[in-house]
Amino acid sequence: MLMPLLSLGNYTPYKITAYNMHERNFLYQLHVKNPKVIFINGVTNEAAIPMDVIVRTDTVQMFEEKLHSFDIQFMHVPQISIEPTLSKKIISPDYLSIEFYDWENILSWINSYAKKSSTFKKTVIAKTFEKRDIFILNLSKGKKKPIVFIVGGEDGKDWMSSALILSLFTKLLDRKNSLNTLLTKFDFYLLPILNPDGFAFSKKQDRLWSKNRKVFSTQKKCQEGNVAVGVDIARNWFLQKSSRMIEECNSVYIGHRSLSEEESQALSYVLNSLALDMIAFINIKGFGQYITIPYGHNDDITNNHDIVMEIVRSTCSKILEKHNITYYYDNFSGNMADWVKLKLNTPIVYTVYLEDADTILPYSAQIQNLKTRLFTILTESLLLSQDIYGPLFNSQENMFLCYIKNIYIVFIYMYYKLL
Fold this sequence. Notes:
Strand content: 15-25%
Distance between the termini: 64 Å
Helix content: 25-40%
Structural class: alpha/beta
Number of strands: 12
Number of helices: 10
Order of helices and strands: EHEEHEHEEEHEHHEEHEHEHH
Shape: globular
Strand order of the largest sheet: 5-6-8-7-9-12-10-11
Radius of gyration: 21 Å
Largest sheet: 8 strands, mixed
C-alpha cells in the first residue's frame, strides 16, 4: 500500500548558517541522530554557506532552542509544497527540460530512443535490490577520445541532477546545439540515476527519501517502530572508519563496509575499467550553489590541486559573467569524488551543486535555468582541461604512456606553481 506523498505542511523549512567547526559538529549530530531534522544536502564542511533544513512540526521548539543555545544563525523560509511527478510519457527530448518524470517513463523513453540513434549506447551495469537497472549512456563520435564521466541521482530525493543529466544527454546529441561540438573532443559516459530505487521511492512515497532501499537481514527496529532500510550511496565510498557503520537507522547510514552496495560497487568497477582514458569525473548534485574539489575526507591536497582550483575559479567567473550568479568553490568534495581522485588519479575531478537559492526543494520550472548554468560549467571547465591535459590522452595508449601519466600531472603542477 502506497503512503501519501509527504505534506510539507507537517514540516518547517529553515536556512541555517554555521561559522565554525563547533557549530558544524553540533549540526552534524542532529543530522545523524534525529530523523525529524532533515538536512537536505548534509552539513557542509565550509563555513558561512547556508544549509537547507526541514524540521518536523513536533520537533521545531526543541530544534530552535538548541540553535539558540549554540548561538547558531537561522532564518525561516516560506512554506513550500511538493510538486507532483509526471507519470505520462515523454513525447520529445525537449520535455525533459520542463518536467520531472517518474522512473518508468524515463527508462521507457531511453530504451525507445536507443533504437533510433547510433550515436549512443545504453549499458546496464547492475541491478538494484529492487531489481531496477543501473544504466550508463555512452556518447561518442568518430575516433576514441578522452572520457568525461558524469554521474548524478545518488540521493533519492535529488530529482534535479538526473533531470539535468538527461537534458545534457539530449543536447549533446543535437547537432544544432553548441554542446554537440564537445563530442569532437570527448567521449561522454553519463549515469543519470545511480540510485533508482531511492529515486522511485522519493517519487511515489516519501519526497525526502535519500538512501537506497536495501532491506537488512537484522530487521532492526528504529525510533518510530519502522524497520531500518537503506544505505546512503553518497557515503558508501567512505575512506575512514566511522561509528555510523553500525547505525542502520541513521539517515546517513554508510553501510557495513566500503562499496557494500550494488550501486557503488558496480560504478567502481566501471570507473576502474575506464581509468586510463578518463580525463574528467564530474558528480552532479542538487541543493546548492558551489563547486567542490577533493579532498573532503582529510586535509590533504591532490597532486594537481592548484591546476584544478584555477579551472574551477575560472569556471565560477564565467558563471557570474554569463548568468549573474555567484558560485562558491573550495575543497570539501564528496566521498565519491574523493575515491575517484585517490584511487584512480583522474586529472579533473569535481562535484557541482545546482539549485536556485530561493528554494529548498526544486521545481521543474527551474530545470531550464539550471541547465544553462550546467552547460556553462561543463563547456568552460572541459575546454580548459583539454588545453592542459589533452596531449596526455590524444596519443595512442601504451605501457609507457600509462607509466608517465602521473609524472605528467606532477610536472604540470610544478610548472603552474612556478608561474
